[in-house]
Amino acid sequence: MTNLSSKLIFFSLELNRIDDKILNEALAAKGELSRYKPWFDELRKAKPYQLEDRVEELFHEKSVTGRGAWNRLFDETMASLKFDVKGEQLGLEATLTLMTDKKQKNRKRAFKAVVKTLDSNKRLFTHITNVLAKDKEISDRWRGFEDIADSRHMANSVEREVVDALETSVREAYPRLSHRYYAMKAKWFGKEKLNAWDRNAPLPTSDDRIYDWQSARDIVLDAYGNFSPYLAEVAKPFFEGGWIDAPVTPGKSPGAFAHPTVPSAHPYLMLNYLGKTRDVMTLAHELGHGVHQVLAAGQGPLMASTPLTVAETASVFGEMLTFRSLLTQTSDPKLRFALLSSKVEDMLNTVVRQISFYTFERKVHTARRKGELKTEELNRMWLETSEESLGPSIKLNKGYETFWSYIPHFIHSPFYVYAYAFGDCLVNSLYAKYEHSSEGFAERYFDLLRAGGSKHHSELLAPFDLDAKDPEFWSLGLSMIEGLIDELEQVQLAE
Ligand SMILES: [Zn+2]
Question: Which of 225, 230, 288 is nearest to 423 (CA)?
Fold first, then answer.
């Protein structure tokens, strides 16, 4: 891939060398080119940070023995690590899954196993983290990026002040969200404080309903159709045309995704459908991506795909529609409790946890500029940010301090973590608008999806009277999560 892509980097570099005046005249003239103005605008933003061609080529080729090599060392080390759970040697995934087991004994065993293995590898993880942070600092300095996260913001097509507003709003909301929820959860478990291995423990009441494929399809299409018949119409061909690979089969990759292929064809969805409520939500999520990809296809190959800022819009929105309709159809208080609590936990893990990751990364990269970091310093930063975000009802048991070291995002794509919080909060704000007034909302919403990557988030959100630079915007989304916690408290009281 590096060999092939090396031969392509001239394309954007040379386009960016065209004089502004000449390019602007060409884009202003009537003709095919003017359509691509948004694409050129994005490309031009990289111009001030672009280096001479020879240096760009060197950076690109050296990445194989630099960043790439350290990433590979991390991945291969992670894949080979063994975690000793009661004599059984498990991999990382299996051990982390065991930390969400129904039995407390198993969760605790898994936690201890993670602590032990991470601790015996901390020297290596500390070194990799130091090298990569320094490597990033070198590139940023050569290119002239000011803030440690600016290059990520540029790639995401989002401004620093917008991300700052998001981080500030979420951190301010910690007490109202995670602190409050975990205090409630501790009470459900009859404890004052939850141990670190109980944070993601399944709740005493769980939703064990199983939906066959036909029911899942009906639930999601009904929820989509209640929002707008057109949304269901765009979604139907996925089921009728064989665009979804749903069953779990031997050798199939885990997880789920929607792939747009090319705009002149149609997307495909990959799922591992097992019939749990969570799987129905995943279907609603991926189908949302699929619908977005179909609607944006008109923008053509260069502009159909969306920047990070709006990439999760249709997926999270579709999930929310489906969640709401499932909740309305569920009257059993136990099941309502299970539905609400798992939604709240998902949201906290997406919004609160990812923002605390972002805060942690900011501390690490800022401190690294002053010199190499010791394991103890990294541990301390991790504990600080964890304590701030999780609150007083979660105990950070001995050994938790090294849990930063297994998180792949810190290695693979620094500062990417805020993307998850960004997408979730943006859609929550949008959904809150829809709840306040659904008049004409659907049409505006479809316009947003059809725009694909051809518009900036400020242009896309303007028709909804929303502005991501405004902390109020983020508060609106966060109040949605608060509202769900309120509902949860009500169900609990009613019981
Ligand atoms: Zn998604």
Answer: 288
